[in-house]
Amino acid sequence: MAELDPTRPYSDNSPYSPRSDSEDLHPNDPNHGTYHQWEVWNRIDYTAYRSEIPRFCSEFGFQALPAWRTLTDWVHAADGGPLDAAHDPKNDPNFLLHQKAEDGNGKLNRGLARHLGVPDGFADWHWATQLNQARAVVYAIDHYRRWWPRTAGAIVWQLNDCWPVTSWAAIDSEERPKPLWYALRRAFAARHLVFANENGIISAVLLNDTDEPWHGALLLSRERLDGDTLASLTVEVSVEPRTVTPIALSDELSKPDDPIAEIVVARVKDLTRVHTFVEDIELTYEPDPLEVQVVEAEDGYAVTVTARSLARDVTLLVDQAAADATVDDALITLTAGESRTFHVRTTAHNIGQALTRPPVLRSTNDLQHT
Fold first, then answer.
1. How many helices (H) and strands (E) does the chain have?
2. Contact in structure between 332 and 355 (CB atoms under 8 Å)
3. Domains (range + CATH), the chain
4. Most CB within 10 Å of its CB: which of 90, 113, 115, 310?
5. Would you state the pLDDT for residue 200?
């Protein structure tokens, strides 16, 4: 590189601390150059992402199972039967052959335990790992983006797989996106809204990564899960191009009367974000919070869901209804009274009922009652 283009900056490796001797400065020093974070996946909870502010995190990730159909089409139990009909699918030798991380299932379970719990059923466990993968990675991205320009970028490991396997990928080997893929698209949007909790102060943080100012009315409210508003405030915001603007919440908004039954909601234009005061395993979710209407369309189905109570991370695992099915979005959180229409594309017919219930229609809510 020095010979061909001496003007071009070059990094010897990743991670790498430039302009330094490795004996004096560790190559993975978060204060210099690129940084890799694998302690979270290997040893510690994903909330630890917010304990550090690297300059550029060029590798981090979290595992999940591939899409259900990809898994069950390619991986069969050791006795030759369907994997999901095996006595103990999680520990079936053939399933473990497709899990290359050391103690991978143990790490998945430890990652789940504090946040979503560890379901007993294989189908519920499959969904929980996919949801927790998205939660963990987005937790990191929200934190890194909030600290711009101190943290100037992040690269997620990894995009895709070449083999049907439990892995860090967002797209599996059959090119079916996991929920993480949709979460990444949202987390890296040019205009974004996240929550931060630092030194006991909860803030709504607006991220404007465009060349134009972002003006709007930010509606903040503390609500019960059933939609009853306990406190609210509207703030006119103006976020300059390429900047981050935090809005600290007042005690009226950030101090719950009943932490397990209340949330904070931030809304600006078409963005809605929810902050919970406790982990999902402690929240008093309604187990079946959705009304569902399915209408056939020319290229598939329109599935409209309306929440009677907080419905978190609503997702259609459409490959379980039809092999060729795709859906336009996933991991949609709806507060009480809100609706969203998912567009499912497929050549399959007579699958409307399957789109209205588990194992196709999933949310965080139904994991708390398995």
1. 8, 16
2. no
3. 1-187 (3.20.20.80), 191-282 (2.60.40.10), 290-367 (2.60.40)
4. 310
5. 87
Cα(71)–Cα(320) distance, integer angstroms = 11
Q: Which amino acid is at 230?
A: L
HEC profile of 88-128: CHHHCHHHHHCECCCCHHHHHHHHHHCCCCCCCCHHHHHHH
pLDDT at 22 over 80: no
Q: Exposed, middle or buried, 128 (CB in 10 Å: 0-12/13-18/19+)?
A: buried
Are 221 and 336 a contacting pair, CB within 8 Å?
Answer: no
Residue the block writes with tokens 């991986």: 75
Nearest C-alpha neighbor of 62 from the set 114, 110, 27, 117: 110
| Model confidence, pTM | 0.95
pLDDT tens across 136-189, in order? 999 999 999 999 999 999 999 999 999 999 999 999 999 999 999 999 999 999
Where do we find the tokens 């929810």? 274
Report whether 178 contacts 130 (CB < 8 A). yes
pLDDT the model gives residue 369 = 61
Quickly count: other Cβ atoms within 10 Å of residue 212's Cβ: 11
- Rounded to a whole number, what is the distance in angstroms from the first to the last CA of the chain? 57
Rounded distance between C-alpha atoms, residue 90 and residue 258, angstroms: 37
How does pLDDT run across 189-248, given as a tens digit for each residue?
999 999 999 888 999 999 999 999 999 999 999 999 999 999 999 999 999 999 999 999
Confidence at residue 204, expressed as pLDDT on a 0 to 100 scale: 97
